[in-house]
Amino acid sequence: MVESDAGREEEEGEQNEAHLSDGESSDGSFGPAPLEASSPNGAAAQEGELTDEEGNVTNEEGDGTADENADTRAHPNPRTPNKRQGKPAMRSAKKKRINNDIYLQNLPTNKNYQVSYMHTDVVTHVLVSNKKKYIITGSANGVIKFWYKNVGSIEFVKHFKIHLSEIICLFLSEDEEVMGSLSKDKTYKQFDVSSFDMNIIIKLDFSPQTGEFVYSSLFSPSVKVAISSSEKPCIYIYKPLESDVCTQVINFSSNVIEIIRYNKEYDLCVLSDNSGLIDIVDVDTFHFPKGGTHKGGNTHPPRGRPNRDSQRGDNNDDSDDDGDTPAYVKRHHLTKKQLRFSFKSETDLYELCKYKTYALCVSISPDGEFMAILSENYFLLIYKFGTMKLYRIYDESTEMYLTAQNDPLKKELHIDSLDFGKRLFIEKEIKKHIKNKNIKLNMITFDESNQYIIYSTFIGIKVVNFVTNQLCYIIGKNEMNLRYLSLGLYQKIISANKTRANIHASLYINEENISDCALFCTVYKKARFYVFTKKAISEQELDDRDIYNEQPSKNDLDSFISSPIKKVEDNNRTYKSAIIYTTLGEIHIALFHKECKKTVENFSIHSTNGYYNNCIFHRVIKNFMIQTGDPLGDGTGGESIWGKEFEDEFFDHLNHSKPFMVSMANCGPNTNGSQFFITTVPCPWLDFKHTVFGKVTQGTKVVLDIEKVRTDKRDKPLEDIKILNIKMCH
């Protein structure tokens, strides 16, 4: 995952040191240098520039499971999960070939959402019960709604205002009979899903962090819930049907437990904290299980090397079995799956700690054989649960998408440049939002075949066959201004005549059986949840998809109305000019959008987002230039829309041979951020040092008026001259 990332960070550090140009100010500020201050050795900085040759994710070592005919261009690009030097080559597994056409018939394939429904506040959670055919949604104001899944649609059932504060997490039991809810108001509330009634309320003595049902109807007769504290590293165990008093407290020496996930097939729990530590624990003791016999007796050791714990005479447990053994224990005693390792050091569970990141969400496949983790740096890790060895790693970071935009082999990841910049801006806010709000999101889900993983990404929702390592398609990529977060997948095969079909007999969909599948999604800062299906949407239906089942407030009405989803030509969406409104007047500029695409994109998005509003002209030099674009106002601040410096864009015909050219300020090659300047005289010595991305077409008098103001010794005007607003024009 990250061998190349560590190298890239080190090289970028050296690169920044090598990028000090002759025009850098002594105080580290950005800006062009006057002619007399220019150094004759302007090219020396570029010679010291380093290039990153190992920055791309590669897959030089295969694991033998990918299809030979798989499209190697499709992203995600696999990373070799665990490279061990000197390890003998393993015998390659038999190649698996899966007919995507069959399995994808029971997954949503329409790229646009079919319908959306409202809450009175931002929708933060969505749960799907395939067995009971219910969808449960929760919003930031403590409201929970139950919906029933009909063929081709959903129907509202019941509304609860259950919490006085924001909902932290919603979770279902493995049999989907019980739903639990935790809130910042220090309460746990439990629902019976079949009757959609709240039947238990427990007042907690601590602030909850997360929760999970840690029992299986196969192995335990009673409901048991584990709730972690946000104040100290403890997990509190409750049996809500028996008492509202905590029955067990488990103390940990590590950090606060952020995520708890139960694997019903192994009867084990996965724990994760914000340091990246991942643990596998027994649901009774909450300690590391003892190899292949972590619970129960008459179990067979795994194939391969003998399990030391299985050689201790555990089979003698059956000799004590009498007639009082519960029926559910006898019936399922041999069905529990066993781990195939005895020590945590045999696994890849330290991978997140190694690279100083942590898990945002964890999901377990229906058969319990795979576990997926989305890390804070947006890498998706898929483990084989029995061995806890890495099976796949997918890079979903913003850096990967930045690189992919210029890669002709990854056209399926390309999006409009202006839309890309907006998504980057939103992505920064989302990271802060998840960390500050302490909201648990389910951004990953597996399908019922255990072959596909569906997860929300920077550009949409990806459907990936992780067995053959193929990106099948991306859902919701065409929808503007929607960043999908929590997901819930509903899959059902029904008979074509609308009578119930035996799903076990209908493994494959044919003329007699049709799929009634749907993907339910929450979206960042939207008071709606969105539904994707297989139904094709006509252009006439696009404007009628958003159902107003709640009365929107006047302030939120605009945000409730989705933008029409139409593919607009790039020429119509690219800004070609701008008007800078200052305290001294207007400055009209034409943008060189065809040549300097990245620079114009950066300037345009900053302008439309109000980034430049109230920025002062902090550096004014008579007979040279006027400089602005720094929110700090001292020439040392400002950043690009990507959160890092970006490269120069030089062209012979775009130069400083005339006055009133608009250029990017920098502190060396490829160090552009947000600051820019306007020249007042020809400045040929700045050519190929500063990107020229525009020129003044009207308002030259305003530029000269700014140039003439009185300044201090640091060239800062004595009276502030501000940018009031920048209007972008097509």
Explain the overall architecture.
Residues 1-100, 291-327 are annotated as: Disordered. With 730 residues, this protein is α+β, with helices and mostly antiparallel strands. The protein has a domain at 3-53 and 570-729: Cyclophilin-like (Cyclophilin), CATH 2.40.100.10. It is built from eleven helices and 37 strands. Strands 32-33-35-34-36-31-30-37 form an eight-stranded antiparallel sheet. Strands 1-29-28-25 form a four-stranded antiparallel sheet, with no helix packed on it. A hairpin with a 4-residue loop joins strand 8 (187-192) and strand 9. Helix 7 (417-437) packs across helix 10. The longest helix is centred in the middle third of the chain and has 21 residues, at 417-437. It starts with a helix and ends with a strand.
